[in-house]
């Protein structure tokens, strides 16, 4: 629960923009036993970044909250230490998506693809489709 409160506080303070968040536009999947399964899409609509999720019935549902760029200091608050490599991040009060160097590792979590989604239950490695 403490991690969720920290995430919500962290994401609520997003105010600084980066030039390369457009690199995050696209469709992402997660690796399951049966292979890659589509999970989320990031798009830009009317100048705002929008997250669309695939629900259990296979339909795409757009989030009501737009995504805002995540600053380095906000990312470091999430990690709880400094981070000197490059990254891009977009988030809202529920979820954040990041592009980091390939083979990114934080504790037991590894994002070999260089993409991951972070939400209340923790990080999930993504595969850009």
The first-to-last residue Cα distance is: 32 Å
Structural class: mainly beta
Poorly predicted regions: 4-19
Q: What's the main sheet like?
A: 5 strands, antiparallel
* Overall shape: globular
Average of pLDDT: 87
Written description of the protein model:
- By secondary structure, the protein is mainly beta.
- Helices cover 15% and strands 43% of the residues.
- A five-stranded antiparallel sheet has the order 4-3-2-1-12, with no helix packed on it. The protein has a five-stranded antiparallel sheet with strand order 5-6-7-10-11, with helices on one face. Strands 8-9 form a two-stranded antiparallel sheet.
- The chain is globular.
Short descriptors:
129 residues, five-stranded antiparallel β-sheet, globular, mainly beta, single chain
Task: Detail the topology: elements first, then pairings.
Blueprint: H1 2-12, E1 26-32, E2 35-45, E3 48-54, E4 60-62, E5 68-69, H2 72-79, E6 88-91, E7 95-99, E8 104-106, E9 109-111, E10 115-119, E11 122-125, E12 127-128
Antiparallel strand pairs: 1-2, 1-12, 2-3, 3-4, 5-6, 6-7, 7-10, 8-9, 10-11
């Amino acid at each position: 629960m403490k991690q969720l409160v920290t995430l919500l506080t962290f994401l609520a303070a997003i105010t600084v923009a980066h030039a390369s968040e457009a690199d995050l536009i696209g469709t992402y999947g997660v690796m399951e036993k049966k292979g890659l399964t589509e999970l989320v899409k990031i798009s830009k609509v009317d100048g705002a970044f929008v997250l669309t999720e695939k629900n259990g019935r296979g339909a795409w549902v757009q989030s009501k909250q737009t995504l805002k760029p995540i600053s380095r200091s906000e990312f470091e608050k999430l990690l709880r230490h400094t981070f000197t490599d490059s990254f891009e991040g977009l988030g809202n009060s529920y979820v954040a998506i990041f592009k980091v160097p390939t083979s990114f590792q934080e504790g037991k979590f590894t994002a070999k693809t260089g993409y991951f989604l972070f939400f209340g239950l923790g990080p999930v490695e993504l595969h850009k489709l």
